[in-house]
Amino acid sequence: MRTETKIRTGFIPSLENGDNLMRFEFERRYDATRDLKKAELIDGIVYLSDKGKMIYAKSRGKIIALIAIYNAATMKTKAACHGTLIFDDENELQPDAVLFINKDCGGKAFINDENFLEGAPELIIEIAASSVSYDSQ
Fold first, then answer.
1. How far is residue 84 from each of residues 9, 22, 39, 77, 127, measured CA to CA in Å?
2. C-alpha span between 107 and 71 (Å, rounded)
3. pLDDT tens string 56-69
4. Global pTM?
5. How many CB atoms are closer than 10 A to CB 121?
């Protein structure tokens, strides 16, 4: 059951791993949580990431280089890394990299008025040492 927190003046709960929230409440808590490195909302469940380790950072560097080369060689595409991607009210991600076709060329994703990517990009890349915490949900 998804919950919306009752708003008390001056109090906004911090995000916690496993919280079950709608996107509006996720964004409200995200903005109020200090020292937050990365948080995602997947099917209404909050996932907080640990600090980046070198095995992750090296893999991410290679992926970003590959996607940048592809983007430079392929017209009418855009590439981005670590930006916010909004699918719907239960899914807001910060993938390691995305590649999308310009909307005027038939792509399904676009940059909205708040400067977030919205919709379904053609490629989403998420690097993880293990997906066990995601798979167990």
1. 28, 16, 10, 18, 16
2. 14
3. 788 888 999 999 99
4. 0.74
5. 24
Q: Are 91 and 60 in contact (CB under 8 A)?
A: no
Domain with CATH 3.90.1570.10 in the chain: 54-130
Query: From residue 114, how far is each of 70, 84, 110 by CA, in Å?
Result: 27, 10, 11
Sole residue written with tokens 């995602």: 40
Q: Helical H runs in the chain?
A: 23-32, 54-73, 132-135
CA proximity to 19, closest of 41, 38, 35: 41
Q: How deeply is 57 buried, as exposed, middle or buried, from its count of CB atoms within 10 A (0-12, 13-18, 19+)?
A: exposed
Looking at domain 54-130, its CATH class is: alpha beta
Written as six digits, the tokens of 79 are 């590439």
End-to-end CA distance of the chain: 14
DSSP 8-state class, residue 19: -
